[in-house]
Amino acid sequence: PMRRHNLRIFVLCHYVACLLAVSHTTDASVAKLSVSSDVSVDTKNFALNSVSSSVRHSEEIALPTLGILGYGGVGLSQSTISFLDFLPLAVLVVAVAFYRQKTKEVIVANLCEEDGTKLDVFRDSICHWYSDWNTCAWSCFCPCVRWAETHSILGTLGFWTGVFIFLVFCSVSSIVGLLTWIVFAFVFMLFRQLFRRSFKMEDAGTCCSFAGDFLVYCFCGPCAVAQEARHVEAAARAGHDAASSV
Q: Which NCBIfam families match (predicted)?
């Protein structure tokens, strides 16, 4: 029941974030229509053309929400997006982080249920999202909170430090563009390598694992977040030393 309640609350928060993002672009378009009646016809036509262009941008953009969610800034109209667009979303994410801290379930070690010796490779594949719907929902709709919680369990980062790092990188990359997104992927690739070393995974530090970790955070950060979350929760249930901070 608690997991279903968490999922309903979180999906509601996600839709609120989307509505905030949509309302900003809509307000911007409506504002451009407010042309005084004494302006010439040519000026009115110019204003209407500007609104039409703005609407086209609105139809093709990935909402600012996508930056917060870790999906990158592909398709964002740089002329209509500013740092202020992210403030309501950032506040919402922080509120959700507080909610997660208050309601998260305590993982109890059960050595009979989980085998800690099998954690030197990822427990699930990168696309095995359907194995845990609760983790999947958090990783898709608010990966910054789920990623921060994973590293707080490992003891590599504090929870709020992790939320801040993820939120800043996602927001800045969506505003600035592709170059910052590449930096984001590189930084989180290093954290994923640290994750691998925590469990003494065989491929940690190899060229293939570096390349794979970089690409997965480039194209689907939430997929990587969900995979790491499922793995660390399994480790906590198994009483693994790497997850002793739970």
A: A_thal_Cys_rich
Question: Count of H helices and E strands in the chain?
Answer: 10, 0
Q: 18: part of which helix (H) or strand (E)?
A: helix 2-33
Between the alpha carbon of residue 243 and those of residues 155, 226, 237, the distances in Å are 8, 16, 9
Per-residue pLDDT of the chain (246 residues; tens, 9 = 90+): 444 444 444 445 444 444 444 444 444 444 443 444 444 445 445 444 554 454 444 433 444 444 545 544 444 444 344 556 667 777 888 888 888 878 776 565 554 445 545 778 888 888 877 778 888 888 888 888 999 999 998 888 899 999 999 888 877 776 676 777 888 889 999 999 999 998 888 788 889 999 999 999 988 889 999 999 998 988 887 777 766 554
Total number of domains constituting the chain: 1
234: containing domain: 1-246
